[in-house]
Write a structure and sequence with these properties.
This protein has 166 residues and is of the alpha/beta class. 26% of the residues lie in helices and 19% in strands. It has four helices and seven strands; from the N terminus they run E-E-E-H-E-H-E-H-E-E-H. It is globular, with a radius of gyration of 14 Å. Strand 4, helix 2 and strand 5 form a beta-alpha-beta unit. The chain has one domain: Glutaredoxin (3-Layer(aba) Sandwich), CATH 3.40.30. The longest helix has 17 residues. Helix 1 runs parallel beside helix 4.
Length: 166
């Protein structure tokens, strides 16, 4: 399993329109990989804040649809409704597995040199405490923009289980 400080595993995935995207092409760019679901309420709750955190930090946001039971048309429609800039299809969950994704949402921040700098939850909201007190993704991205290391570098992802069989 990848750890913070390791080179981010390269991958190539198609987007919802069939165009291919490769992580190695992001060298020189701060990139947020957002393990994503069209139907998970936790992902729906965090989508706007993940988009805003990426925008404010100048990072590129790559949401990666991983659930075996979500059709491409459904993924495309929901992504458009939520205004996600790019959604890739990880139909065999090889990227999710390579990164050790535990749930949707699970975010991974890759720096301009291709090094994993943060992984975990976008924030600390929970079922019984739905208002976040800490926005981990925002904090990690802002620290990196200042040339600092995120603190924390790893948090526990929580949300919906990744669906592996339709």
């Amino acid at each position: 399993m990848i750890r913070v400080g390791d080179p981010a595993p390269d991958f190539e995935l198609p987007d919802v329109d069939g165009r291919s995207h490769r992580l190695a092409s992001q060298r020189g760019r701060l990139t947020v990989l957002n393990i994503w679901s069209a139907v998970c309420p936790w992902t729906e709750r965090t989508d706007a804040s993940v988009i805003e955190a990426a925008r404010l930090s100048g990072a590129d946001l790559w949401s990666i649809a991983v659930n075996a039971d979500e059709a491409v048309d459904q993924v495309r429609r929901v992504a458009a409704e939520r205004r996600l800039p790019l959604v890739l299809l990880d139909s065999d969950r090889r990227v999710a597995d390579a990164y050790g994704a535990a749930a949707t949402p699970h975010v991974f921040v890759v720096d301009a040199q291709g090094i994993l700098r943060y992984q975990g939850a976008p924030d600390d909201a929970r079922f019984r405490d739905p208002e976040p007190r800490h926005r981990y993704l925002d904090d990690a991205l802002q620290a990196l923009r200042r040339g600092e290391s995120p603190d924390p570098t790893t948090t526990s992802a929580h949300g919906c289980a990744i669906v592996r069989m339709a």
